[in-house]
Specification:
Structural class: alpha/beta
Number of helices: 8
Order of helices and strands: HHEHEHEHEHEHEHEEEE
Radius of gyration: 18 Å
Low-confidence stretches: none
Oligomer: single chain
Shape: globular
Number of strands: 10
């Protein structure tokens, strides 16, 4: 059975609230009241407007600069630029591996991307493809690629992640249809191209 992106987000939200309710029922009254406030504060991922003061070229410079800093955490992982990844995609040689959460993927994803969970079920199935991992800016995917390398599984990392992909002209999809919405995780990474809407997690959502 498949679910729409909105259904996935609702299920994830209900799950988060359920976990919080279990914690609250075991807490003293004061903590319980604080917990209820936290539940009120947590909502579906919210859309935010990206700053219009920066050009796409300036955003690119920021995104690639941030990625260069993150790259120091996994120096042995092989990078693939978005433009190179697009060429490999057109040649039918690549599988995109999305390391993000289901909530993030539900907003949009790269063409034909598979989830980390799906990949880990049958990693050998993709042995004859070039596997390119990504997340918002490819920090999480870089760390995942490093972990997989220790197990003998090679995963390349999309330099600059989803942000660099769309800033370089790549398309993203929601339920098979092209969209101009991307999940940027948090405001720190809110650098989508002009004409795109971005979605972020609220601070408390990152804890669950």
């Amino acid at each position: 059975m498949s679910y729409s992106s909105s259904e996935i987000r609702r299920k994830s939200y209900r799950s988060k609230v359920s976990r919080m309710m279990r914690a609250i029922t075991a807490a003293p009254m004061a903590s319980a009241m604080m917990g209820m406030i936290m539940i009120w504060m947590i909502a579906m991922p919210r859309e935010v407007m990206a700053g219009a003061s920066l050009s796409d070229d300036e955003k690119k410079e920021i995104v690639y600069g941030m990625y260069a800093g993150y790259k120091k955490k996994f120096p042995a992982v092989t990078d693939v630029s978005p433009l190179k990844a697009m060429a490999l995609m057109k040649a039918g040689k690549v599988v995109f591996l999305d390391i993000r959460t289901a909530e993030e993927m539900a907003v949009s994803a790269l063409p034909g991307a598979i989830s980390k969970e799906a990949f880990l079920l049958h990693p050998a199935f993709y042995h004859d493809h070039i596997i390119i991992g990504y997340c918002t800016i490819s920090y999480r995917s870089g760390k995942f690629a490093e972990e997989m390398a220790a197990k003998g599984i090679q995963i390349r990392n999309l330099a600059g992640g989803l942000l660099a992909w769309v800033l370089e002209g790549g398309k993203v999809y929601e339920n098979g249809a092209e969209t101009r919405r991307i999940h940027v995780y948090g405001k720190k990474w809110n650098y989508p191209p002009a004409g795109y809407d971005s979605v972020v997690f609220r601070p408390l959502e990152r804890l669950f």
